[in-house]
Write a structure and sequence with these properties.
Layout (H helix, E strand, L loop, with lengths): L8 E7 L3 E8 L4 E2 L4 E4 L6 H15 L12 E5 L3 E2 L2 E2 L14 H9 L3 E5 H12 L8 E7 L3 E7 L2 E3 L8 E2 L2 E2 L1 H4 L1 H7 L3 H19 L3 E5 L19 E3 L6 H8 L3
Parallel strand pairs: 1-5, 5-8, 9-14, 14-15
Antiparallel strand pairs: 1-2, 2-3, 2-4, 6-7, 9-10, 10-11, 12-13
């Protein structure tokens, strides 16, 4: 592990519907000080419960040998459309979050600065600066295949926030209801059957956005050899490199 630079250490937290992942990131290098930790997302995942869980996570991190300053800002990847620190949707968490001033609530809980970013945007930011898209110019589209389909769009290194391509309709149905990794598992699709669905979706996305690179993330990306060779696009397509740590690294980057 490369030597850490204390002034550039930041806490990154990735809040999901089932787990909260977190770690300390050297934002100068994009490296983790140690493997990411995680705990179960409280149920129901309402504002009070999540705020308490985040407080516990930060308290845990501050006990680590490589903890950042107790006054350093915290970056949080959150499963919602985020506009100026406010949640405008809620994915796999309580609807009580809709309209909530997430940054202000978490700052009050932690008594330190907090920045919040959509979870797919955090992963996309990390992958394009530290992962599979590092050094790639132009339009880069990152798609995370999991419970749903997350998406992030980077143009010459600049993030276009809150792109919700999982809700893109293909054949009259939302893509994430037919093409997510969870759908593949629930329907018992073979890799060939799944590749066919993914091909249809990616062809549509390619036509609409004309990206220079597509990166496929989510837990399923570790098995990319099972399905990516079957995908035929004019656009280069690569598996993600950072996997489950992408959201944590991206969240830390926004306060680095």
């Amino acid at each position: 592990m490369a030597k850490m630079t204390p002034d550039s250490l930041r806490i990154g937290i990735d809040i999901g519907g089932t787990a909260i992942k977190y770690g300390v990131v050297d934002t100068a290098t994009g490296t983790l000080s140690r493997p990411i930790a995680q705990q179960r997302t409280p149920q129901p995942a309402n504002p009070a419960a999540i705020a308490e869980a985040v407080r516990a996570v930060v308290a845990d991190v501050q006990s680590w040998e490589t903890a950042p300053s107790q006054f350093a800002a915290v970056g949080v990847a959150f499963p919602a459309i985020i506009r100026q620190g406010i949640a405008c949707s809620a994915a796999n968490i309580s609807d009580e979050w809709i309209g909530q001033k997430v940054e202000i609530l978490l700052e009050e809980a932690l008594q330190r600065p907090v920045r919040v970013i959509n979870d797919a945007d955090a992963a996309g930011l990390a992958e394009t600066t530290r992962g599979a898209g590092k050094g790639h110019k132009g339009v880069v589209l990152i798609l995370t295949l999991g419970t749903g389909i997350g998406s992030a769009l980077m143009i010459d290194g600049k993030l276009v926030p809150n792109l919700e391509l999982g809700h893109l309709e293909v054949g009259g149905l939302k893509a994430e209801t037919t093409t997510s990794a969870v759908v593949r598992e629930n329907e018992g699709l073979s890799w060939i059957e799944y590749s066919s669905r993914l091909q249809r979706y990616l062809s549509r996305v390619e036509f609409l956005f004309s990206p220079d690179l597509i990166i496929i993330g989510g837990g399923i990306s570790v098995r990319y050899e099972e399905f990516l060779p079957q995908i035929l696009l004019a656009t280069p397509i690569r598996p993600a490199q950072l996997h489950n740590s992408a959201g944590v690294i991206g969240a830390a980057q926004i306060v680095g």
